[in-house]
Hints:
The chain is α+β, with helices and mostly antiparallel strands. The chain folds into two domains: 2-84, Antifreeze-like/N-acetylneuraminic acid synthase C-terminal domain (Type Iii Antifreeze Protein Isoform Hplc 12); 99-227, no CATH class. It is built from three helices and ten strands, in the order H-E-E-E-E-E-E-E-E-H-E-E-H. A hairpin with a 2-residue loop joins strand 6 (121-130) and strand 7 (133-154).
Amino acid sequence: xxxxxxxxxxxxxxxxxxxxxxxxxxxxxxxxxxxxxxxxxxxxxxxxxxxxxxxxxxxxxxxxxxxxxxxxxxxxxxxxxxxxxxxxxxxxxxxxxxxxxxxxxxxxxxxxxxxxxxxxxxxxxxxxxxxxxxxxxxxxxxxxxxxxxxxxxxxxxxxxxxxxxxxxxxxxxxxxxxxxxxxxxxxxxxxxxxxxxxxxxxxxxxxxxxxxxxxxxxxxxxxxxxxx
Length: 228
């Protein structure tokens, strides 16, 4: 009897909850990514739980672009406000295979920002508070010799569009969430009071980011366990 119930359980759910297949983001997608079938997977949800702002048909997604100021997170829905299909809103940078355009917000109050120009190369530094001593900073070189594809100015805000490889997407998203990413023109060293900072090379910086991300996820799981 239990076996029979198991066989009919999906049909029961579909009848009572109107389950539908919904497109889901298969991996982290940076700004300006053109949506392809390979970026989409499918999960089933009750239709009543889905917001009107979510794309339900994958055919509507193919060919659209992630907006300049948006990042799509793995496992999330495709929201209509995150995408656009007007090529006037997104620059076509004629990217090669495994190349992506990634946008970073720039702090307009930093004096060196005005020095940044299109087609320059910059080194990216990760800055965050030292977990062991909040009075100190952690400074780490994240990427070297990264090409600036564009500088976008709108509503007193600035964004820098950079050229990256697919393998850099996740670490850049993590770094942006865990601290600040600061661009410096290649050849110019990061200037800071070393007495209050720890300086890391690229490999150590990426390891630090992965460790912090792991610790945050572990803490989230621990809190969920305590709530239960």
